[in-house]
Amino acid sequence: MKNRCFWVTKDPLYVEYHDNEWGVPVYDDDTLFEFLILETFQAGLSWITILKKRENFRKAFDNFNYQKIANYTEDKFETLLQDAGIIRNKLKIKATISNAQAFIKVQEEFGSFSKYIWAFVDGKPIQNNFVNREDVPATTPLSDKISKDLKKRGFKFVGSTVVYAHMQATGMVNDHTTNCFRYNECN
Known about the structure:
It holds the Pfam family Adenine_glyco. This is DNA-3-methyladenine glycosylase I. This protein has helices at about 10-20, 30-40, 45-60, 65-70, 75-80, 90-110, 115-120, 140-150, 160-170, 180-185; strands spanning about 125, 175. The chain is mostly helical.
């Protein structure tokens, strides 16, 4: 039996996500945007809730196409509010639209969102050596800094906890615990 991080339940969706996605460095703007949106909707909820609705989010938000999302009309917004397959939070849906617009502006300024976000860690993952649950932070001074910068650029629902979760998910930090079989694979 494989040792996994403390937060992984027996749910096959969680196991699959942990074993194949979480903590793997992502440099692709499309995937970075998807995770940003999912993390935004996760604020205040459990990650498994989001994972279970991921395909619904994908359908509802045009496969996370930020070019399309940035141009959503009021009608599309109202349609999303009625979509029982996603989290129907008015502020988070509005934030998704404005975040798509801010995302495009960052791409225009830096050439890609990836160049912008990865510059905070000099282009390579921070390798942490956490042993147990208590060691893993919810925020760091770096996630505080990134959060502040994103907000300055017009992003919403990007508090330090959301940003740190995004950093973990996209491999900007390796927060697999040292006893997890993925720790060395993501190192």
